[in-house]
Amino acid sequence: MASRKVAFTPGWIKNKDSYKYSDPFKYILNFYLWGNPCKQVSSSGRTMEKRGWGKDVWRKKELRTYLFIQAGLVNGKNFVKSKSIDDIAKAVSTVDLNGHFQEKRDCNRLAFYSDDKQPDFLQIIFYIRCAFAHGRFERYENETTYYAIEAVTRKPGSNDCVLKARMMIKEDTLVEWAKTIVAGEKEFREKNHKLIDHVKHLIKKQIEAGQSQNKAAIIRATGIDTVIAKECFTAMSKDAEIVFDKKSKRWTVMK
To answer: Are both 129 and 24 inside the same structural domain?
Structure first.
């Protein structure tokens, strides 16, 4: 299992003297470092309200759901939030970011600690900001570019740090997250409508395939976070887009 204690300068972090500043990387730094939406983080920051989002944007969870689906994050699989700093090592192991985690570049993976004082997504953005600000990241260019990211708290007078977050994130994901927030709520509504249609399509596809008529199995087969897919499934049932026949014990796509 991973440890919650890590070195201040681990071997996987290299110096940045000759770092290449590609256009996507510049955009990422501009948003997460300077234009960060977290309050009281950057003097140049722009909060969600300043970007035209409603005050209850995170309470409604629509934006959070959209951003997580875009990143392919599934709770308990490649995304884990630890509510106790003592459990961060377990969270890291759950998403398979222990050991030589910087080599595991096959999908987005996030493990982080949160005291729930701010919304999950803003907490994630804050940790990403900290990683860039303190040089605790590496960029791996390939067919798909990934960023290995860590956020830590250093013990005074020690080389030991307490791990707060560890992530492996695609560059495309970091850019898409930033662009979605910068574009504002109106454009998001259009994107979100298309995404909901996509989730509905996946659910209908599983029902029509007929491999399983169990609601839980259908939801799991979509590959979408179960909480998110369940909400969509419930809405589809309520709107009679899909109907369950008690006699045959089968779901049917109606429209």
So the answer is: yes
